[in-house]
Amino acid sequence: MSLKFAILGVLELKPHTGYDLKKTIEASVAHFWSADQSQIYRTLALLVADGLAEVEVINQDGRPDRRLHRITPTGLAALHEWLTSPLPPETPHDAFLVRVFYVGELGIPAAAALLQSRRAEADAVLSRLTALVGQESGDPVDLAHRLRRATLRYGIRHAEAELAWLTETVEALS
Amino acid sequence: MSLKFAILGVLELKPHTGYDLKKTIEASVAHFWSADQSQIYRTLALLVADGLAEVEVINQDGRPDRRLHRITPTGLAALHEWLTSPLPPETPHDAFLVRVFYVGELGIPAAAALLQSRRAEADAVLSRLTALVGQESGDPVDLAHRLRRATLRYGIRHAEAELAWLTETVEALS
DNA sequence: GTCTTATATATGCATGGTCTAATATAGGCA
DNA sequence: TGCCTATATTAGACCATGCATATATAAGAC
Is there a contact between A34 and A88 (Cβ–Cβ < 8 Å)? Predict the structure, then answer.
């Protein structure tokens, strides 16, 4: 659903090929959005079909032509409209909590193992995000830049909450 | 993917029809898993086809027969195996953060509106979960029960983290 | 007396996503 | 020489989910 807009957002900053997009997404928004390569190409085709992006074909020899996509005025309008539209209701799907909910039947060791491996995950996420924030230099002045950094802080806050919850839950096990 | 196991978990406690399942899911795990009715029926059919559940048909007149599903030993084994299997890597898809990431282009008012409506959501979630925890009586002794309650606390912790992040992010806007 | 809600399941269609693989070439490494 | 990686796109199969609709009846509300 919003891969469409994640892509439009990238295109707003700079024209991209599908191949570039995959890399840009991995390098910038991977901490809250992941996209399969084939899904990116399909979504690009859809954007073009809907007039939200347009393609410039750049010939190459030896490899497929580059299809450089740029956002159209219609695309820009669609992106801005989406950004200001109401948040749709969430339909939660958290497989980890499904495990927590039922693992009690298996006894304390199984529960402890589950929580411990989740802790390893959360630790990894936290240090990855902390490193990312750290490598950004100085004070961001520009609003857009500040908000982009805020998405990293979002992940950090939630990882910390996760760790706190894990600690109290593990303690309550025995 | 794990709807299969969410359902097996319910069936482990008690046999259910598809209709019952929908209600049980809404009443117990809705805060971290939601499932469409048709999806439940389809998944039940799949469980039966795989030998993880079996059906007892109970005749009724005036309305469709009840198809009571109970977990099989194979199903129980599959559930327990899943509960102790390694956590698969997460592929994040957070549409809200996509908005935060790009809304900066539209200026402070648009950003503030986005964050404010998210705050309303988080407030609602927090009070709903707090009410749920409150209505549970006394100290849970049994491990399974404690872990089920922990899933509520998980939601609460994360909602609180969300609110804290919203506050600091809104403050940093201007 | 009609309208809504509850009971109970089935099916079709669309959407969004993952995984796999095909195609074709250049450059670097062992 | 042979293998792996990077570049670049396309396509097919499959899976999970959601939305809508069909069917059929009884009980309760207004």
Answer: no
Minimum CA–C1' distance nucleotide for A95 = D16
Q: How many domains does chain B have?
A: 2
The pLDDT tens digits of the residues spanning B28-87 come to 999 999 999 999 999 999 999 999 999 999 988 777 899 999 999 999 999 999 999 999
Contacts of B18 (CB under 8 A, 6+ apart): B37, B40, B41, B44, B67, B69
Q: Does A75 lie in the same domain as A46?
A: yes
Residue numbers in A near B168 (CB within 8 A): 153
Residues B50 and B102 in one domain: no
SS percent in chain A: helix, strand, coil, step 5: 65, 10, 25
A–B CB contacts, 8 A cutoff, strictly below:
196
Q: Are residues B79 and B56 in the same domain?
A: yes
Residue A89 belongs to some domain of the structure: no
Chain B CB contacts of A168 under 8 Å are: 153
Residue of B144, B146, B161 with shortest CB distance to A161: B161
**Distance, CA of B142 to CA of B112 (rounded, Å):** 45
C-alpha to C-alpha distance for A121 and B89, rounded to whole angstroms: 9
In a domain, A50, yes or no: yes
Query: Tens digit of pLDDT for each residue in A6-52?
Result: 999 999 999 999 999 999 999 999 999 999 999 999 999 999 999 99
Q: Strand C nucleotides below 7 A of a protein CB? A: 7-12, 15-21, 23-26
Q: What is the pLDDT of residue B165?
A: 98
Is B88 domain-assigned? no
Q: Which domain holds residue A15?
A: 3-83
Mean pLDDT in runs of 10 for chain A (174 residues)? 94 97 96 96 97 94 88 98 96 97 97 98 96 83 94 98 98 92
Nucleotides of D under 7 A from a protein CB: 7-13, 15-21, 23-26
Same domain, A79 and A10: yes
Phi, psi for residue B57 in degrees, rounded to 5: -90, 125
User: In a mutagenesis test of the B interface, which of A3, A79, A101 is the best target, namely the one with the most B β-carbons within 10 Å?
Assistant: A101
**Mean per-residue pLDDT over chain B, rounded:** 95
